[in-house]
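ASSEMBLY PREDICTION REQUEST
Request ID: AP-0331
Submitted by: J.K., bench scientist
Number of chains: two
Total residues: 617
Priority: normal
Notes: Please return the full assembly, not individual chains.
Input sequences:
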Amino acid sequence: MMRPLLRDPTTLLPSLAEASHLRALHAHLVVSGRLASPSHLAAFLASLASSNHLSYARLVLPQRPATLLAHNAFIRALARGPRPCLAFAAFRDLPLPPDHYSLNFLVRAATALVASAAEEKHVSAEVNARLQAVSAHGAAVRWGHAADPHVQSGVLSMYAALGDVASSRAAFAEIACPDVVCVTAMVAALAAGGDVDAARDLFDGMPQRDHVAWSAMIAGYMHVGRSREALMLFDEMLSAGTTVGEATLVSVLTACAQIGTLDRGKWVHWYVRSRGMQMSIKLGTALVDMYSKCGAVVTAMEVFESMAERNVYTWTSAVSGLAMNGMGTECLQLFKRMEGAGIQPNGVSFVAVLRGCSMAGLVDEGRACFDSMDKYGVDPWPEHYGCMVDLYGRAGRLDDAISFINDMPMEPHEGVWGALLNASRIHNSVDLGKYALDKLLAIESENDAAHVQLSNIYAESQNWKGVSRVRGMMKAKGVKKVPGWSTIEVDGKVHEFYVGGRLHPRYNEIELMLAEMDRRLRLQGYTANTREVLFDIEEEEKEGAISLHSEKLALAFGLIVLPEDVEIRIVKNLRVCMDCHRYIKLVSKVFNREIVMRDRNRFHHFKGGECSCRDYW
DNA sequence: CTAGGGTTAG
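STATUS: Completed
Returned structure:
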């Protein structure tokens, strides 16, 4: 008669916040005799623990003959809860010797502890997590359960979460016959430790691979930013006919976002819909992120609005998408909506909204956001200070930027000086630029971008001596400039262009188009601004170099091969230089094309001779 | 009653 109520106390309890309801349910379980059954007791305890009724659970637990089933369920619930350290206390208080289940859950608790410590960036928490992790492994050995396959795979990923691949390796070597799960865990551990090639060797040697193994290897490439290989492996996975799960698609979308390949990203979106796959929070978030990072911010927001459920990652992803696409006002509005929806912003959310405010020159609003971090219990990271300096500096309030730096409770990190340097460039403040560079170089003496920035400041003020001095400095210190490259996607294929390079098979056509572009731009009164460019390349390449910045090559190629009604989408690894920016604005007008360019920091949407960044970047 | 892969910034 009362069966329906008892079916699943796990889903029932969270809605019963009231203690009287709790006691009623408890009484009900007792009277009906259900609580005498170890599995019902275990389920009841688990739901108590996971719905934050810990003290109640602790009252219930010792009142009957102890079973490992019940205690293990309790430990498991604690391990998955907000405070995994509680699982250790429960493990210590076990009235019976632990079995392999207990140890498995203990190891999970340690992993969760490590993960949360890493997220909080708290040093003492990390040290503590490390100790707990080692002690969990020790307990598994001491109680004779270290050879249980569930415990083994758990231990491997636990050490991986700690960043201790050596221990993962050692533990893996102990396993006589590792099963698919353990090998997959080891593949992931090696990749997380940066040794993707070792991970790939292990993966290639696997006697059988299921979709999780494929997924782990694809994600492994993503961990080290080798997104092209991730996509290539995904193609192999498709040809192998393996089932494609949601997790795989999330990694694939991350790869698309990183490369900026909108066509493949759209294909994934289509794949999800055509298979009728359910749109989970993670998948939806990955889609929002992919569309944002491919410059399709409108579609990103459509996906965002269509999602049934969103968490702080989803919101932050959308806020950040608006910020990087230069939609500062919308970004701030969305952040406010997020607060209104009762979502607690975290450190990343604040980085995103502060960047958005910076883009739109919303200085006071940004300041208010920064000040509100305290209210949410978010400790500012160095990045947040960097954003604030950028916010003031970009708006031309250099004095405010400086006094903000002086009031910092910590030593300014390189990002802070970098922001000040950039502000000095925008507002032509030579002295401040020099000062910021000095500070920056004291921290990062070989920062090539910083040298280039200072040189640009000198160049803007026609100080050629300064330009050559910086150049000499770089030579003397052996600072190597990162070579610039740009990519453009045509029919799903990504074409790469390098600065001054003539490697593309259709270079002859590109050269003709570049000449045509120059001709038509000159008719509009364009003259090349050689100041930055001259510094950017080696002496012998100077001649003709203005046409050879990688983004111009990519743009010329786009003009050749893409139809007029298709926007030209370029991804560049460095910040766009002033001359190219001016050049591309003009091309967008003269050739009547929409051009979207993602540079190192943000998007530039060019149209009709204007850029969405309003010339501040 | 257990296990391996996946989401936000820089």
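REVIEWER COMMENTS: Strands of chain A lie at 485-490, 493-498, 568-572, 595-598, 603-607, 610-611.
SIGN-OFF: pending second reviewer
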